[in-house]
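Re: Re: ligand-bound prediction request (bumping)

Still looking for help on this. To restate: I need the protein modeled with zinc ion bound, output as structure tokens. Inputs repeated here so nobody has to scroll up.
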Amino acid sequence: MSTILLGGKICTPEKVLDPGILVINNKSIDLIQNTSEYIVPKTANVLDTSGCWILPGFIDIHMHGLLGYECMGPNLDQVIKNLPKYGVTSFMATTMTRPKKETNSLISHMASILSDPPVGARCLGVHIEGPHLSPERAGVANPKWFSPLTTNEVDWLQNITNGLVRMLTFAPEEGNALDVIPYLIDNNIVPVIGHSNASYELTKEAIALGLSQATHTFNAMSPLHHRDPGVTGAVLACHSIVAQLICDGHHVHPGAMQVLLNAKGISKVCLISDAAPFAELPSGKYHWAGQDIYIDGKTTRLSDGTLAGSHALIDTGFRNLINLLNLNILEASQCTSMVPAQSVGLGTSKGQLLPGYDADIVVLDEHYRPLLTIVEGKIVYQALE
Ligand SMILES: [Zn+2]
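Reply:
Sorry for the wait, this slipped through. Here it is.
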């Protein structure tokens, strides 16, 4: 039986169809058109979405967990189950720097959950963020466990995850990490610069070797100085590289976000949450990977004030793109769905509302809050009356 979303404002890549109709058959989008041109079959499961926004589901390629559940380890199943509430239809389960033995055990747990995942958001793979980082730009990670990226390390990671690593954030200036970029690409892993103190020149060299993405642009990277443009300058200057952006309103000033959008264009800005495992939890003191973390209702920080991931999920970032940066809904949707899908090689099946694409859909109310989330044709969250 097909599922039909009837009467909403459907956000296709080109325009908003209002009122539109979207027909789902099995796991895919079958048809999108104006309601007046369509006769609803009697056997269909019809959902009245009048007045709502209908968009491709949010894709968060950089997030560590939520509500006390961490992606890295045995609670990944809870992350999968809880993400649809925030409109997320797929995500990359992102890790955190820990000692090697602990990393081994936690990542093995992730691989076993992903071999038979529960119903919820689709986990697209594992995003390794650390320990191959620069001690100068550690952020919340503990530098005592850092080590430069090597091909052996890539082999080890793919071994313990059964080949599930799809993204790897690293500092190319550490050891011989620059030389590992072609090896990552050969292994179908997206090479991502991050927590890096590299020079502008070295970053450009990395981009020439195939580096295609930057982790949370502006945060934990050498900043733009007009005589020393650093990683940030290279990301702004080179069109090919996709820039991840945390849009929680605390990690990056709206003015800097605007600079990024102006320099890169919307099609190269990928919104991420970088949500901490305590995202959306009440104020208080928590513990993450050997560090005390303090939540004040809006941010998650170390005791010295360093931001430790985000307290908000990507749906908040989506609303901020509209409310803080005045993007229209189609532009905001590109940054939260199309660009992330394309940046991990899924641009022809996910991230846009088009016939033939996976039926990964979020229905939002007039304040852009999720009411209904559909993953590959299945309703996984519903607050719609
Ligand atoms: Zn992160």
